[in-house]
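Go through this chain for my students:
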Amino acid sequence: MSKTLSCGITVSGEVHALVQLSAKFQIKARDFKLNDSEGLAVWIEGDESKIKNYFGNRLADYNRDLNNGKNKLVNAPKNWNL
């Protein structure tokens, strides 16, 4: 399974569900100093229903976490095989 994130990183791996790939991404993102909230924000970027589900009315928090996460991933490889 694979998913290309809005930031241009393609994440792939052998998983049974997309949520497992998301978890693997968030764990690997820690290597690039992202916290879990930043990793989640990068993963769900552009998906309004998930943004609402996970961040609720805290859009300022979402935007901060998204920007911080994307900045930390600027020099990260563009293909992640997890």
User: Anything to note?
Assistant: The longest strand covers residues 2-4.
